């Protein structure tokens, strides 16, 4: 009999994947972690029964978190990734030659440990000499930082457990202080089909903190609904006003110069979430 993993995305809907075997499972200090070998998606990282990343479609999320803000900023040197212990965003960040240092702050060291073991194509860049890995609370790291980073990327789980504080207005205000005077930040903000209220709340909070606030989307098949949003806050630079010569050739599978702008063209029901009452 086949074994199947099902993520219950709402009370009435879920997605399921055929599992060849469980590679590792444990209750960490923060969450239940499981690595699954799936038939369709390759190795899959699951936290608290939610799919975090898979070998087959991971490039979409990681490229869109990293390259939108890094091509928007004219000279990103110091980059912070909050969460993202699988290492995928760091891998993409390092494709930008201007980046001198990339700091990863992940609260759960077990995510880093088992991603290196079972997701080496994603986590391989964590040992790069430009990377500093800190097993620490990202919320507290931000609170203690001031005018340090050019770009901050929040690669968190959904707003449950240790990630709840990463969706608060106070956190975005802390990010603004941790960024330099021309800094940019981006966060994953879930999907508009099931989490419309969250997107609306985050957009409003970020807009009160940053002069330029934009939402963009990507298609990630193993995430709830497949349509995923990201919210960007920028102090100066508009992601839709990037000069053509700033786009350098890097190796990607999803992100392109044309998609950079196109991703900000929102379906109307998503655009409506960014309108004031």
TrEMBL record:
<feature type="binding site">
    <location>
        <position position="86"/>
    </location>
    <ligand>
        <name>spermidine</name>
    </ligand>
</feature>
<dbReference type="InterPro" id="IPR030373">
    <property type="entry name" value="PABS_CS"/>
</dbReference>
<feature type="binding site">
    <location>
        <begin position="155"/>
        <end position="158"/>
    </location>
    <ligand>
        <name>spermidine</name>
    </ligand>
</feature>
<comment type="similarity">
    <text>Belongs to the spermidine/spermine synthase family.</text>
</comment>
<keyword id="KW-0808">Transferase</keyword>
<feature type="binding site">
    <location>
        <position position="162"/>
    </location>
    <ligand>
        <name>S-methyl-5'-thioadenosine</name>
    </ligand>
</feature>
<keyword id="KW-0620">Polyamine biosynthesis</keyword>
<dbReference type="InterPro" id="IPR037163">
    <property type="entry name" value="Spermidine_synt_N_sf"/>
</dbReference>
<keyword id="KW-0745">Spermidine biosynthesis</keyword>
<keyword id="KW-0963">Cytoplasm</keyword>
<dbReference type="GO" id="GO:0008295">
    <property type="term" value="P:spermidine biosynthetic process"/>
</dbReference>
<dbReference type="Pfam" id="PF17284">
    <property type="entry name" value="Spermine_synt_N"/>
</dbReference>
<dbReference type="InterPro" id="IPR001045">
    <property type="entry name" value="Spermi_synthase"/>
</dbReference>
<feature type="binding site">
    <location>
        <position position="31"/>
    </location>
    <ligand>
        <name>S-methyl-5'-thioadenosine</name>
    </ligand>
</feature>
<dbReference type="InterPro" id="IPR035246">
    <property type="entry name" value="Spermidine_synt_N"/>
</dbReference>
<comment type="pathway">
    <text>Amine and polyamine biosynthesis; spermidine biosynthesis; spermidine from putrescine: step 1/1.</text>
</comment>
<feature type="binding site">
    <location>
        <position position="106"/>
    </location>
    <ligand>
        <name>S-methyl-5'-thioadenosine</name>
    </ligand>
</feature>
<feature type="binding site">
    <location>
        <position position="62"/>
    </location>
    <ligand>
        <name>spermidine</name>
    </ligand>
</feature>
<dbReference type="InterPro" id="IPR029063">
    <property type="entry name" value="SAM-dependent_MTases_sf"/>
</dbReference>
<comment type="function">
    <text>Catalyzes the irreversible transfer of a propylamine group from the amino donor S-adenosylmethioninamine (decarboxy-AdoMet) to putrescine (1,4-diaminobutane) to yield spermidine.</text>
</comment>
<dbReference type="GO" id="GO:0005829">
    <property type="term" value="C:cytosol"/>
</dbReference>
<dbReference type="InterPro" id="IPR030374">
    <property type="entry name" value="PABS"/>
</dbReference>
<feature type="binding site">
    <location>
        <begin position="137"/>
        <end position="138"/>
    </location>
    <ligand>
        <name>S-methyl-5'-thioadenosine</name>
    </ligand>
</feature>
<protein>
    <recommendedName>
        <fullName>Polyamine aminopropyltransferase</fullName>
        <ecNumber>2.5.1.16</ecNumber>
    </recommendedName>
</protein>
<comment type="subunit">
    <text>Homodimer or homotetramer.</text>
</comment>
<dbReference type="Pfam" id="PF01564">
    <property type="entry name" value="Spermine_synth"/>
</dbReference>
<feature type="active site" description="Proton acceptor">
    <location>
        <position position="155"/>
    </location>
</feature>
<feature type="domain" description="PABS">
    <location>
        <begin position="2"/>
        <end position="235"/>
    </location>
</feature>
<dbReference type="GO" id="GO:0004766">
    <property type="term" value="F:spermidine synthase activity"/>
</dbReference>
């Amino acid at each position: 009999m086949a074994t199947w993993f099902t993520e219950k995305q709402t009370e009435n809907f879920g997605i399921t994947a055929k599992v060849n075997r469980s590679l590792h499972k444990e209750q960490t200090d923060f969450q239940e972690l499981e690595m699954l070998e799936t038939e369709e998606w390759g190795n899959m990282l699951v936290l608290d029964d939610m799919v975090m990343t898979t070998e087959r479609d991971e490039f979409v999320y990681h490229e869109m978190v990293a390259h939108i803000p890094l091509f928007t900023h004219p000279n990103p040197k110091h980059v912070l990734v909050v969460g993202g212990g699988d290492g995928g965003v760091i891998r993409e960040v390092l494709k930008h030659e201007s980046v001198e240092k990339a700091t990863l702050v992940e609260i759960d060291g077990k995510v880093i440990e088992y991603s290196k073991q079972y997701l080496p194509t994603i986590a391989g860049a964590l040992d790069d000499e430009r990377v500093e890995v800190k097993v620490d609370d990202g919320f507290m790291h931000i609170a203690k930082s001031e005018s340090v980073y050019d770009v901050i990327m929040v690669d968190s789980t959904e707003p449950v457990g240790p990630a709840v504080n990463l969706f608060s207005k106070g956190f975005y205000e802390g990010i603004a202080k941790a960024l330099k005077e021309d800094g940019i930040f981006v966060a994953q903000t879930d999907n508009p089909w099931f989490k419309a209220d969250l997107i609306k709340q985050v957009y409003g909070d970020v807009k009160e903190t940053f002069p330029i606030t934009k939402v963009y989307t990507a298609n990630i098949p193993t995430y709830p609904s497949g349509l995923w949003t990201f919210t960007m806050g920028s102090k100066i630079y508009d992601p839709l006003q990037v000069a053509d010569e700033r786009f350098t050739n890097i190796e990607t599978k999803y992100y392109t110069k044309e998609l950079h702008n196109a991703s900000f063209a929102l379906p109307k029901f998503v655009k409506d979430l960014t309108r004031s009452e």
